[in-house]
Amino acid sequence: MAAIEITTLARRPELHERLPELYGIWPEFMINDRIGYILFGRVAELFPEQCVVGTAGDELVAAGRSIPFVFPEPDRPELPDGGWDQVLMWGISDQRRGRRPTVSSALEILIKPAHTGRGLSHLMLAALRDAVRALGHPTLYAPVRPNGKTDAGLPMDRYAALVRDDGLPVDPWLRVHVRAGGTIERIAPASMVVADSLDRWRQWTGLPFDTDGPVTVPQALVPVHCSLAHNHAVYVEPNVWVRHDLR
């Protein structure tokens, strides 16, 4: 198997158009977060120097994106409950207003399934940290999606606190961040929100959505709330804020 080369999109701009080669890794309902649908595609275009790509020969095998923003300040005194959605809005808003960012947040690390198990998650996170450090930002935050969580009914704060005998988090992605020097800060209880009609949820999941109340959806971290009377279902995903000090 070819060796992995990791660099930034600023250095390999031709790979920007190839990012869709990694689509399909997230469950379909996840890509229908409306904030993300509108804004996420701008990140690689606006901030290529802090978006990283991994290649094996001519194959694009991994990508990581981060976004700069101003933090803290009077109207942003703490990491937001709105997590991924909120920091994406902050970053794009700050860029439009010409504000000088002071920190960054990771938004995504994607790895092709055929290339998992090669330590790429650690390498891609290290590359994001290096890219943000090179910009002079002292901190990289991350609203981590702990995708090892399989019990939708278990509250995220309880899951994030679970550790192994060696003291590291049970969750694989949280473990990657902690091993890299990250510190778990708090839960972002409403990090992503996906709301749509029951027909749309049926299309995305193949589930009937024919009962009021919580619905367990594969790869969802918490239940999806279904209302037959109002013909909609709403998924509010919690993430875990992690802080990486880069100095």
Kindly identify the CATH topology: Aminopeptidase
Residue share in helix = 25-40%
Question: What is the overall shape?
Answer: globular
C-alpha end-to-end distance: 35 Å
- Provide the gyration radius in Å: 18 Å
| Annotated CATH architecture | 3-Layer(aba) Sandwich
Mean pLDDT comes to: 97
* Approximate strand percentage: 25-35%
Q: Which stretches are poorly predicted, pLDDT < 50 over at least 5 residues? A: none
Q: What's the number of structural domains? A: 1
Number of separate helices: 7
- Look at the helices and sheets and give the structural class: alpha+beta
Annotated CATH homologous superfamily? Gcn5-related N-acetyltransferase (GNAT)
Quickly name the level 1 CATH class: Alpha Beta
Order of helices and strands: EHHEEHEHEHHEHEEE
How would you describe what is shown here?
By secondary structure, this protein is α+β, with helices and mostly antiparallel strands. It has helices at about 35-40, 40-45, 85-95, 120-135, 155-160, 170-180, 200-205; strands at about 5-10, 50-55, 60-70, 105-110, 140-145, 185-195, 215, 225, 230-245. The chain is built from seven helices and nine strands. Strands 1, 2, 3, 4, 5, 6, 7, 8 and 9 form a nine-stranded mixed sheet that branches. The model has no long low-confidence stretch (mean pLDDT about 95).
